[in-house]
Specification:
The structure is a homodimer.
Chain A (H helix, E strand, L loop, with lengths): L7 H9 L10 E14 L2 E7 L7 E6 L3 H4 L6 E10 L7 E12 L14 H4 L10 H23 L3 E2 L5 E2 L11 E3 L15 E2 L4 H11 L1 E9 L12 E10 L3 H22 L1 H11 L3 H10 L3 E4 H11 L18 H11 L4 E7 L15 E9 L3 E8 L4 H10 L8 H5 L8 E7 H9 L12 E2 L2 E2 L2
Parallel strand pairs in A: 3-5, 6-10, 12-13
Antiparallel strand pairs in A: 1-2, 1-4, 2-3, 4-5, 7-9, 10-11, 11-16, 13-14, 14-15, 15-16, 17-18
């Protein structure tokens, strides 16, 4: 490490490890922003956050210092002083400051104040909201969660493939996309293509890599131009798409469950201060929900069985759409009933009717269902969608013709089934929904540093 | 790990660790693609790669088996057999196969053949080229390099910020961008903005996060719509942009050097098989260049001193542009002379004339130069560009007015200097240039899974 100054995170680490004897009276320099400041006449208390972790250090100063006692939330300071251990107290240490240098004071108009402000308001100040407790924790957890995603795949022998953002293919064969042009007057000129758009999924592009490296994944931004305004959709979001050769639908569920439990477990351990805040202040049920998520097995059942459960339930439970029969594309209300009310745990639903799933899913022998699998979780609904892929050239071609797809555009994809094919499966995880799941935040906009949604883009 | 089958990587690991006794006669099942196959009458040898590492396992079979001896490169197979150790031989083990099941044969027309094919040709088959030795190694190294980038920042307390791809701001205040529209007829309708484009840099968006968390970085795709056709430019590429509060120009050079050496060192260690191939087959000077990169200190000097060196050199060395004087925006020929001929090592150039650098760089007291710093490296030229940022509101505003910038659009950025500002610095690293540096590949297109360049986009 280049930085030789001790951080607040390191101080807490030593205290938690019962290895704090050498901290007492240690001279330290702390650089950060003010989270709280109050003067009680003789003595003043300034809480400073150095960015290393969720918790602050409280600097004690002479309360009659006019400048210091006037310093407001968000101002930046350099504190020099000695650590004074107060193990067992309200906070385990404070800093007896010998000098506090004020680097930049916030103005009267600084929009973040001590009183509780709404998430809606904070969303209008994306360059400041991460100084509030909630968002400070959300974006730290977002980062640490990302890290453990990469670490899981790396440690398990996956290759990260940076699939392209600009593409002329459309994975789902449907769905609104954003068009991309270098020059409005000659839109097709730059790439010699007349329909370049932002990717909706890296799956098709990553499949050939799975057939070479065995285990691969993508982790990058994806885009949907739907004009929808819900708490679960954004126009720009990040997606993780693992793809495995020599893997069938049952095995991909094993991978999903192992992966999801790993990232939640490790992120909770590393960000224990942030999670304590979420449990106490954001969602009282979150801790139990995450305990269950990590410790209990996920339920697995077929779509057809789910339909029976929902039919039965509709006799006593109100669904907006109660016309429940085989072929129904489950709405959020149905998915959430299954995972929240009926099973009370994450549920893998498998073997969907082919009509409601994408063209590339492997057909079952009944020629009615495909080896698709969605993961439904409490509070979120659909978290992952995946499948075993159709690896038979003739069957895939027939299905694409059935759907009147533009075959020449997908020739390269079809060809993968001719030359050195293998069974393979994969799934997609919407990263922001995962952040919602672990933090308890209920609006996708509150998990994105600069959310881009229909009619809404700041900076 | 869910996968209980032993991989080729694990076999080599055990052999390298001198921990291979229990391997001999071990029954294994290997699933992968054929790299090479030849029958010598009685006995046949099939090299199979399972994707876990660069090296293959050679399966020995009865050479008079008509099907097996006809299997071509790229076909997929499942090999069952026993490991036979041949430590000290040409390869340290082979597999006495009891059964080889052919899953999918490649056709006569399969474009990858045993004879050496050109990178240019391979670029036309992006779904297949990673089965060739060179690209198999390049994309593995690309993945592992990415991982160590995240690991370095995570282990050193940085927060990864997913800055937006869609933006209405333009970091450099210049440069061609790709426009994005949801609906051609009403281009401004979706976001209520009339100029939404793909990001050219996440720097401006990440600065407020640095002022909160202290140390942050971005790692994501960026876009330039320049109509240039060089071996070092792509329309879509990935960039890493660390940003640190409480950090000046000299400290950011310390961070850069420490970071770059760490990622090169760790990637070389993990991918030692791939690097052996690069050293022997791609670039004979690569090994020494990387040794120097990791072990020797980078040179640091001022732009002004570099101009003096180049002036002197121009008396004996030919430059296309030999009009060398203070204010010159150094061309690649000048940068490469400094790093390859004069210093023969990576060089940080600092304190550039303000006219040739971006508006946000901190002015020196001479009011002539700014605290910008570029890192020049042999074979590549400019690898990173960075600076200390102007943190004085009045100075930044004056400079932006001098450049006739659209001040209202940048008000949010200017405001960061008013409310809780702090000195801060950062740099940008073009990820594909870093891949070129470590692999010895000389065309950026050969470091990207699906390169997007002017007039060129496949799938």
């Amino acid at each position: 490490m280049l930085n030789k100054e001790i951080t607040i995170k390191e101080i807490y680490q030593k205290i938690n490890d019962d290895n704090y004897q050498d901290l007492d009276n240690k001279e330290i320099t702390l650089k950060g922003f003010v989270r709280n400041n109050r003067s009680l006449g003789q003595v003043g208390f300034m809480s400073v956050n150095d960015g290393s972790c969720f918790l602050n250090a409280q600097a004690v100063y002479k309360g009659d210092d006019a400048l210091l006692s006037s310093i407001k939330l968000g101002s930046t300071v350099i504190v020099k002083g000695k650590i004074h251990l107060t193990i067992g107290g309200y906070q385990p240490f404070e800093i007896d400051s010998s000098n506090i240098e004020v680097i930049s004071q916030t103005e009267e108009s600084f929009p973040l104040q001590k009183k509780k402000t709404s998430y809606d308001f904070l969303r209008t100040i994306p360059t400041i909201r991460m100084k509030s407790n909630t968002f400070n924790a959300v974006f730290r957890v977002r980062s640490v969660l990302s890290y453990y995603i990469h670490k899981y795949f790396h440690d398990n022998g996956y290759i990260w493939v940076h699939t392209p953002i600009l593409t002329a293919n459309d994975c789902e064969g449907e769905g609104q996309t954003f068009q991309v042009v270098a020059d409005e007057k000659h839109p097709e000129e730059y790439f010699n293509k007349d329909n370049v758009h932002l990717t909706v999924s890296g799956q098709l592009h990553v499949e050939p890599f799975a057939l070479t490296y065995g285990k691969v994944y993508t982790f990058g931004p994806t885009f949907r131009a739907e004009k929808s305004n819900t708490t679960r959709h954004a126009a720009e979001f990040w997606m993780i798409e693992p793809e495995l050769a020599w893997c069938d639908m049952n095995q991909i569920m094993d991978v999903e469950e192992d992966f999801l439990k790993y990232i939640v477990k490790n992120t909770r351990e590393e960000c224990y201060q942030d999670f304590k805040f979420f449990y106490e202040r954001v969602d009282k049920d979150l801790e139990k929900r995450l305990d269950d998520f990590v410790n209990k097995p996920f339920k697995r059942l077929k779509y057809e069985e789910a339909i029976e459960i929902l039919k039965e339930a509709s006799k006593t439970h109100h669904f907006d759409n109660s016309d429940i029969k085989f072929g129904l594309d489950l709405a959020s209300e149905h998915e959430r009933y299954l995972t929240e009310v009926h099973f009370k745990c994450p549920v893998f639903l498998t073997d969907y009717p082919k009509e409601i799933k994408a063209f590339y899913m492997k057909a079952n022998d009944d020629n009615k269902t495909v080896r698709g699998v969605d993961l439904l979780v409490p509070q979120i609904g659909e978290l992952c969608g995946g499948s075993e892929r159709e690896d038979n050239y003739e069957k895939l071609l027939a299905r694409m013709n059935e759907l009147h797809m533009n075959i020449p555009a997908y020739e390269w994809y079809l060809d993968l089934r001719k030359n050195g094919s293998a069974p393979h499966s994969g799934f997609g995880l919407g990263f922001e929904r995962m952040v919602m799941l672990v933090t308890g935040m209920t609006n996708i906009r509150d998990t994105l540093p600069y959310p881009r949604t229909y009619k809404d883009m700041l900076y």
